[in-house]
Amino acid sequence: MLELRNVTKRFNLTGSVEDERIALDNVSLAIKPGEFVTIIGGNGSGKSTTLNIVSGVLTPDEGKVLLNEYDITKLQEYRRAAYFGRVFQDPMVGTASDMSVLENLEIAYQRGRIHSPFVWGFKKADKEYFIEELKRFDLGLENRLGQKVGVMSGGQRQALTLLMATIRRRPTIRMMRRDYIKFAGLDSLVARKEFDEEFTRCQIIKDEKIAKAKTSNLSKKEIKIIVKEAKFEFEQAMLAKFDLTKQILLLDEHTAALDPKTAKKVLELTNKIVRENNMTTLMVTHNMKDALTYGDRLIMFHSGHIILDVSGKEKAKLKVDDLLKMFEEADEKLING
Amino acid sequence: MDFLEIVINILSSGLPCCLLALGIFLTYRLLDFADLTAEGSFLLGAATSGVMIYNGVNPFIATFTSIIVGALCGVLTGVLNRYLKIPKLLSGIITLTASASIALIIMGTAKGNTESIFKSQISFGNEVFKGSPIQTIYSLFTPYSYNADYGIWQVVAPWGELIKLLIMFIVVAIAMVLIYFFFGTEYGMAIRATGMSEKMARAQGINTDVATIVCVAISNAVIALAGSLYVQEAKSVSTITASGYLVIGLASILVGEAIFGKRTFKNWLISVALGSIVYFVIVTIAVRLGLPTELKSLLYAILITIALCIPLMKMGFKKLFKKNKNNKEVSKC
To answer: In whole angstroms, what is the distance from residue B219 CA to residue B24 CA?
Structure first.
């Protein structure tokens, strides 16, 4: 669960108190796992600031950012990368233009892990995986892995960034344990105990399976397959329970720079990926129609405050006109009050 | 033989500059960091190697020390830029300015220099021969024969220059292979991504501050190695002769890219290395054709301008070509 608790952020443009502008004023927000949230608001209303505070680009002046009850307010941006996938407004920013599609994907795949200076960057198994993932995108990119990203169109680059934000190498057991103890929101001793117990339980199941296969009179080849399967099941069971990363997708107006047709395609792709992987998503957008069409919760910002927060059926009932009316009302309130 | 002499001349000044160009390429192209430290680390690399060899230290240790000194220069520039938030150009200038004085101090540690702690020039030209304590990495492998008539050791005729070139070539090749493989590793790719889009790099969990510092350090280590090769070839170093190399390196990169292209990383590296050879070919031809040496700097400036314009000219030609094609099609209709 991602949580902002009483976050305030001020921008001091020239240094004098008069020029101070409050971007976020005591904002609290809690987002459940698996929730797809769309955020709308006018220019300078604080929606992008919120995203930047979550991803660690900005540090709040007051308040806290919590990930599964763990305080990440002071965690550096690059250290948070393991838990957030990000897509930017500018298609040029999200990918390295002078590097090939494959190189970009390899960098993204290593997110949240050490980029080692002693390990060759290209791996054969990864390439097959990327091709499979790209095929699902249906953009014809799977045949263009060696091509430089710089020659591709904005829509393709944005789709690639989206893929880069969602893939990530499976964490090792050790990494999972470290993250679980840190981010599970439990007392560290309890978390450690829970993890270790589950780990032993899964391992016993795995060992039993392997032992059973070895005592039976199967051929060596079949035993090998069973061993492999058991190991895979073990990994999956651990991942299902303890993998806290690859949960949160941050989309900062990622279709704003695209033409309407491409924007729609990228949005649909986004929706597909989010639903398939059941990802927690924060999507900032200027387009109210998109905000209503996609996602299951809508938040509207106005001059640093949340003025609307609807989800489920209530959101489904909303129309663009209602939102516009609310905007105007909020503006009037600001002027009169 | 005159021709061979010219070729040897070109290669013996071109090969150290290959490394120089590669070093500058790493910051200027991969990291998009206009790093003026290059000038300073070349001088410091040359000065360190020069003084150590003059003092009779093993030339390999001297070369290695040069590399370390260059890397330290890079780390300094990187830290100034990254942690003290000084703009890239300025942090390079700061290191460059400091290195001029530091080079004087380093050269001041030469044997027999008792008058002051500074020294602006070191030369060990006549003292490199077999059996003497002063050795360069070239002279270690050069065959010498004893001339009984004059009572001195002499280089066996064609071998001296050839072995020098061979050693230079091996060093350049090793450096290139190492650079190629390093920038193909996970961390190398992270560094390249940092140069292209820092936002993206941070979003992918790369500590861009450290990546920048590491890349600038590697770049300056390579440049200092170039300085070390240069001083062992020229057998002398002074604060004046070892300056002005930044422009040469930059010109080599531009010439190489314009002629040999930059399609893939491998292709790009080789282009840059070959660029410095081409550059020296052009300069040598110009000088042979009777260009006064006083006009050399002007020639450098013109060369760089032309090299920078080549991509534009290429585009212009393509456009012309396309227009003609369209016209033809129109006329056919």
So the answer is: 6
Contact B186 A110 (CB under 8 A): yes
Q: ipTM, 2 decimals?
A: 0.85
Query: Structural domain boundaries of chain B?
Result: 2-126+164-295
pLDDT at B329: 47
Domain B2-126+164-295 carries which CATH code? 1.10.3470.10
Site from A75, A90, A107, A158 to mutate, B interface, most B CB atoms within 10 angstroms: A107
Question: Are residues A6 and A85 both part of a single domain?
Answer: yes
| pLDDT at residue B191, rounded to an integer | 94
In A, minimum Cα distance to B202 occurs at A78
For chain B positions 136-195, those within 8 Å of chain A (CB to CB) are 181-182, 184-190, 192-193
* Alpha helices per DSSP H over chain A: 47-55, 77-80, 101-109, 124-137, 154-166, 173-183, 188-215, 220-242, 260-277, 288-293, 312-317, 320-336
Whether residue A48 is contained in a domain is answered as yes
Most trustworthy range by pLDDT among A15-29, A255-269, B70-84 = B70-84
CB contact, 8 Å: B197 with chain A?
Answer: yes
Global pTM value: 0.87
Cross-chain residue pair A115–B189, CB shorter than 8 Å? yes
* Residue of B110, B119, B142, B116 whose CA lies nearest to B129: B142
What is the mean predicted confidence (pLDDT) over A28-48? 88
A93 to chain B, any CB pair closer than 8 A? The answer is yes
